[in-house]
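Researcher: Can you fold this with fe (ii) ion in place?
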Amino acid sequence: MRIREHMQGATMTSDNTRQGDPAGPKTGPAEAWANPKVNRHSLDGDRYTSPEFLQAEWDAMWTRTWLLLGRENAMIEPGSYQVEEVGPESIIMVRQDDGSIRAFYNVCQHRGSRLTFATEGTTDAFVCPYHAWTYAIDGSLTVAQDPEDFPQNPCDHLRLVEVACDTFAGFVWVNMDPDCGSLREYLGPLCDDWDAYQGHDWQRVTALTVRVPCNWKVLQDNFCESYHLPTVHPQLRDSHEDNYLDSRFDMSNEGHSRMVMKGATPSHTFYGDEAPLPDVVAQRLEMWGVDASEFATRPFEARIALQGAMRSAGPERGHRHYDNLRDDQLTDAHHYNLFPNCSLTFGADGVLLQRMRPHATDPNACLFDHWYYAFTPAGHDIVGAQTNVRVDGVDAGHQIFDFGERPMGIIPDQDLAITTGQQLGVRSRGYRGAYISGQETRIAWFHQIIDEYISGKR
Ligand code: FES
Ligand SMILES: [Fe+2]
């Protein structure tokens, strides 16, 4: 099958890597990814700008899907908790005495005050700032002022309203639908792919949350395509094979998708046969004890050499999870779009979580989280060089700021510069809907799933 003809269609299957390339990305079981037929989608401006569409999404989708909200190792001890906002809601996740994590709406059952404005901490109880009703970490109401003055003692029949909560790969998910299915069922083929990294203990080393003037879907659309890489992130040509013909794309019936892009290599598409050995690739070779000068004239062989070096030296350096990883997982970017609002890029020793959270009322605004979790072997530096991601350190705090106030790192700064400009365009009378390519099919799939939630098909 000719690739370009295939990619021009409205559908996309997993068989879209450059033919005859033995070093092309390998992946987990292809059969796990259904690669369903995807309809064309016009991506009308209204869905990015109208309060009515924002509300429809909230009612039919956000409150009925599993949402990645927390991190297990942010809540180690009983009573340690993490609080996250999503749209108009605030959810408390808290470690229990039995080691499980439970989640509750951050709402006092007396007259509705928010219980806590902290984002994380450790406590024996949550005490409402209004009249000091006190809730144990299991959500039970233990103290109410003047209980005899109520028709019935509130402690006997009121408790925090609980939200379904489950964990996987070190992350904590919640679901506001009391009749929801299981998290594993929802994640589908992501489970096997993510399990191999054994990343549940990876520590947060960067946590940036930015208030961005664009709809949350504009960002997720951007993370659903690699068409923008050569133009928006030209520096990636030094570390990735950034042409779509060399990448692999898959979609799942659950609404998730993935892209696998060769890393630790200069872009053959850009440089041709005369590519130099880029500094970033040379640094990775040296980091793993390979003499980079040997690859000065054969840079396209560096990726395989690096895989071999990581495979043999990894375990003795503490990277025991390499035994679970395929060779391509050692060097290549494995990028996942988790429906509805996350994009996770796995490298051998870390995962970049990019998460978009809707504004409570404004369709033209969202919160953008750019958080990186890394393997931190004792006695060794955090391995950040492979990902192009800024690393602030294990104890670095959570920074929350407005778009443009501070730099986030070159790649997210490049993405946000584009997406905030795109928001201005999609709300214009001059925007007549999108005209998308085959390699952008994952965007159409993402929007098709949203539509299916709103129309009641899901
Ligand atoms: S609203 Fe919480 S104690 Fe009154
Ligand atoms: Fe990007």
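Model: Folded with fe (ii) ion in place. The radius of gyration is 23 Å.
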